[in-house]
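hey can u check if this looks right to u? its 351 residues, i copy pasted from the old doc so theres a chance i mangled smth
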Amino acid sequence: MTKLVGFHIHTNFSDGGLSLEDVLFMGIIDGYDINAISDHDTFKAFDQTYIQEEVQPSLKSSFNTELKPKSRAVFEVPYTWDNSEKHLDVIQAIELTTCYHSNVQEEIHIIGIYINRPDDEFLSYLGDIGNNKLSVRKLREERFASMIKKTNSYLGTELDKDVVMREIVGRGCPTRLHLAYALRRDFLNRGNNSDLVKDVLKRFKLGSNIPSVRKITSTIIGNNSPIYEKFPLGRVISTEDAIRKIIELKGIPVWAHPWRSDVYNLESKLEEFIKYSDGRLAIETQHKDSKNVQYHKSIDFCKKLAKKHKLLLVPSHDFHGRPYEENATLGKRYSNNMIRKIENAYRAITR
């Protein structure tokens, strides 16, 4: 037996293309059992005012249902489909951008699944409440503005920050994916025969066709590009503090896409993170990166490490949706046994 689940889903409160209600519609229509909403550095999808004013009316009018509290960090959407009573579990989660150490400028993402609502101090750090000038949201906006400026200087484009923020980022938390989409839109408007587009494609060895948003993200504004800008030291939470915060919020810390880290010291990092989590660390092992030949060996290595250290495995699909991904699904089917282990870990913490 299997369950249809998505444990790594973004909405348009970060860099997803869909609202929470649209994600829930997809979950209902496609028959999902579990959706975990894990936006980058924000908990706004679970803001009660937003849920009451936008999500509940949409669910009521479309499916005659509502989002109901089920347990400590889980909501459910009961509905009828083909004369059968069903329900979709919706898990509170977040994907935190962290800095490996206070003196090491390496970005590591830690997802907290089944977390309680964060305290006001942490929500202020995120930028979800108040006007904290040092919040992650402010930092992301500053970094995004700087990367747009670098893009225009390096590529010769004329992206307007205010237009990009208004038309593409919207209420989201700006990321590279937004910039990649802005670039693709600009290239499409110019056309393949534009001298600027031909120059960029040649410079980055991208062939003769305008690349996808994902391809632009990994090449033109990839980690080794002069356009890319790392998060400054001391402005984002350390990996250790993020893991400890998730534990404090009674969640399960999950190292997201660990194979993107340096494989040569991956196990030593893993052992550190296990210690920070008091043995509760989980690790992503299924991901859309599995299709990327570049990551095959690293993903297999991560699976072996997870088995060696007896870590909880959490499947991931890292859903962003249109317009960033075409024909994307919220997740996949996984064995009941795998999902039961995750749910049991949640129940053990909740007791």
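The chain has a mean pLDDT of 93.
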